[in-house]
Request: fold
Amino acid sequence: MLSFVVMMCPVGIGVALIRRHARGVPSGPAVRDDVPARLLRWAAGLLSARRGEWGQAMLGELDHIEGRGARWRFAVGCAGAALLLPPWGRAGPSVGAIAALAAGTAGLCAVEVVRYGLGGSGWVTAAVMLAFLAGFALAASVLLRRPGIAVPGLLGGLLVAAAWLAMSGFTFYGVIAPVTAPFRPLLPVAGTPLLVGAAGTLWGGNAAAGRRIARLAALSASLGLGLFGTIAVAVLGAGGPPGTPGWTAGQNINDRLGNNIVEFLVLLPLVTATIGWAAAAATARISPRLTASVASVPVVAGGSGGSGGSGGRHEAEAASRVRTWRGTTYRLLLCAATAAAVLLAVVAWLRG
Amino acid sequence: MQRNRPPSAQAIGVLRALAADPERWRYGYDLVTEVHLKSGSLYPILVRLADRGLLETSWEPGPGSRPPRHLYRLTQAGREYVAALPAARADRAAARPRTRWSEA
Reply:
């Protein structure tokens, strides 16, 4: 499983980077396009339609601020305000549920540290878990505010969680027990994110929506299984599957909590987001419907002059060469990802 | 449901800064520097004041291709609201400038 993750991550990151560069920076109203402006543009996009005017107000003000430090401070402050500014609309209950999941997991972990007297190492585990949970809850709350992402993302999260739980037979004992046949669960674990990424892209109508749906599915499944795993540790306590010989009960419990972090808060979101990301990109490229919709978008001439002279022609040729190079690299990476997935599926079938 | 909570000391500071010259339209960043608030605190306050009808907004077209800027000033209701603020509360808000580590 670990080798699979290591193999898939560079591929997914490569695909993502190329897709990001290929998309380019959307032209907004702000003339400056430094990092603070991009950050604020991203955060302003999260505001509800009712508050859209305020996002434009922040962006317009930022454009008139001089000095790197002042721009950063203004943009970070405004981005924080945009993230929290109500109304959140239909995303509110979902964000509350996600926050409750994270808080419940963190609280239960702290209870276990105290109950079993895990001491300093236990608190380190709890702090690491809290950092993951807080980051995931924040990231999920941002995604939930995007229109059209919440429902498919949460449904995808349920699907992914069910696939991972199926590995343990839906039991607390199975969640705690070490995986003895690491290749057996590969197909559902890898196949579900593929399904989520592809279906999300078709649902949302573009690759960006598919990627967001895959990310939300990864985060929500991770938070859900994080809670399930922590409950399993609490219920089984020092019992359940045999621990490491020579270790105390506290050490074994701490080890189980740490395993939960690695499995559910690191591996699960990494695998799901990476494969889902690649699946979304591939679906957007392959699907005739999406390809047709992208091709029908008129190309707007860039640049300030727009005279269409020889300079413009050279720029267009250079841009075309860059697009060709990116397209070739992108196809190579997709082929590599597909080959890796097929190879691993064959290995899993042979060993299963 | 709109809740009309009593304004915070920071909101009172913004109101008083706007009330100092109620006819003049103000930029957001000018208020940030004048009231010594972070932008992350100022804009939610402006949004709440606008929601309550105490603040009116306008757009100033940007020069050339630059984006427009948002402008703010008190409405008549906002001016009356500031005038009706208890003096002690307003003084306390004014006499307690917040020490800030950033936003030069």
Summary: Chain A has 13 helices and no strands. Residues 310-351 of chain A form the longest helix (42 residues).
